[in-house]
Amino acid sequence: MNIIASLPLGVGGHIINFLGREESSPHLEKEHMNISFQNPVGLSGVLDPNLSGTRAFSNLGFGFLEIGPVTWEPTGNGEAPIVKEEAQSILFPKESIGFQATKEKLKKLPRKQPLLIRLQGSQQEIKVMAEGLEQFAIGFIVEASERIDIGFTDKPVLLSVKNPNSLSLTSLTSFSGLIVEETNGFENLKKEITQLRSLGWNKTIISSGGIHEPLQAIELADVGADMLMVKEGYVFSGPGLTKRIKESFLDKEGNTNPSQDGWFSYWLFGLFILAGGLLALLFSITSIILPYDEHFLRMKKEEIWMFNERIMLFMAHDRMTLAGTMISGGIVYMQLAKHGVKKGLKWAKEAIDLAAIVGFLGIFAFIGYGYFDWLHLLFWLILLPFYLHGYRKTKRISGTPSSPNRLNNKSWKVGIFGQLAFVVLGFSFVMGGVIISGIGVSSVFVATDIQYICMPPEMLERFNQNLIPVLAHDRAGFGSALLSVGLLVLTLALWGYQQGNQWVWWTFLIGGLPAFIAGIYIHFAIGYTTFIHLLPAYFALGLYLTGLVLSYRFLHRK
């Protein structure tokens, strides 16, 4: 992840954001110690003592990061953390890369969120380290000791405590806040924070550790924690924990995003694609080729039937799979517009934009072999105004999703595998679309196509030199449509998968049926049933059914 995040021109950050959508809602913004935080969720420094993944963590949706502990000289001997799976706990070794190495690494780190730097050492060492690291930090963390002097900096200083009940609060008034470490279970952590508030501590409290699921984050916030640092729970629950916590906070607060006027233009955009797919389906089961195809071929379809009927059946096969893909894409566009963009969700708009732009650019694949389809151009010209109007009207959309998910229960764990199936399905469609488009503008046929048609390309070209360009146009057009729909499936699975989103499940179900039914049916209808040729379709169908089954309870459960 750190290597990806280090890619130049910000590419790595965009890749990570594409996978996780880690932006924070403005509703989660907090101000403590006169410092603005995008959200209250931070990451404990013990997870990354060598700063080997800090660049990646800065892209994973945290409101702040803890750096350290930083010591004057490197400490630790490379011991691995002791992981206790059953207790879901980790004993982290005391480890630091030292002051100078920390300073050099922070110089190369993009500043995407505030950094709290934990310092350890003598009073003089802490003072020198604070002076050297002050340009990177919004505040410092020191650990409780017999003699504490915070005069080493003008920035906020927080005291890390493991047993706050043993401290006198009156002696801590010079600190800007407390870091309350979880050392003896989550319930004790809650009690300690509750007691601090009941004794009158009204400054910042940051909890450290103890959070394995969103409900625990909410409970800590309810008893008085201003901000939360995840620690071992981030390891056991996975990097999605941060996003789930933020979605839970939004759900608890009942924040709703403003409705967007432009959603209906996007919905009409999808409706026209659906209608175009139905027309293409009608043509694929009746005339197969249209008058302008015959004009380009300078030949009537009856002549092709008489020469080799499998050429016409092969064209019907390509055009029906294209039709089914268009119908599926239209349904997904309409669902994203109605249930996503209308509710102000930025991710839904960006999913539509990404797939639509790729779809529009796909028209250039049609001419890769010399045949420009004017009907497709006319179709895109009809669609374009609706898309542009929707894009302009929703340009300022910024809403992020909320979720009632609170627990790492069986429904959630099974649902994660359902999400994985849909993600792999979407990625498979994207790769399939790229490969098929590439074939359409290059070799046109795969080996099983030649076996089915029973003629080599040279013979087809001798029969009609314009026939292969028409077949290539069909192949490239289907590949472009599959790529566009694959992006819709992939983004819907990555970005819209929140507990209780029934519409997402129904979108997968209803949106997937036309493409699978048309794509598999036509092969059996024309006798093109070579197993190796249909294997990708069977694989995709297996992922589709697996995703529907495993995600049902999670997406239907409120």
Q: Low-confidence segments, ≥5 residues, pLDDT <50?
A: none
Q: What is the count of helical runs?
A: 21
Strand order of the biggest β-sheet:
3-4-7-8-9-10-11-12
Instruction: Identify the overall geometry.
Output: elongated
Cα-atom Rg, whole angstroms? Answer: 29 Å
| Strand-residue proportion | 5-15%
Q: Whole-Å distance between the termini? A: 33 Å
Helix content: 55-70%
Q: Pairing-aware structural class of the strands and helices?
A: alpha/beta
- Average predicted confidence as pLDDT: 93
Instruction: Please state the oligomeric state of the protein chains shown.
Output: single chain
Taking the sheet with the most strands, its summary is: 8 strands, parallel, barrel
Instruction: Give the domain tally.
Output: 2
The number of strands is: 12
Helix/strand layout:
Blueprint: H1 2-5, H2 11-20, E1 30-32, E2 35-37, E3 41-43, H3 54-57, E4 64-70, E5 82-84, E6 89-91, H4 99-107, E7 115-119, H5 123-133, E8 139-143, E9 157-161, E10 177-181, H6 186-198, E11 204-208, H7 214-223, E12 227-230, H8 232-237, H9 241-253, H10 263-284, H11 291-297, H12 301-307, H13 309-341, H14 346-361, H15 374-393, H16 410-440, H17 447-453, H18 457-463, H19 467-495, H20 502-526, H21 531-556
Parallel strand pairs: 3-4, 3-12, 4-7, 7-8, 8-9, 9-10, 10-11, 11-12
Antiparallel strand pairs: 1-2, 5-6
Helix pairs in contact: 6-7, 7-9, 10-13, 10-15, 12-13, 13-14, 13-19, 13-20, 14-19, 16-19, 16-21, 20-21
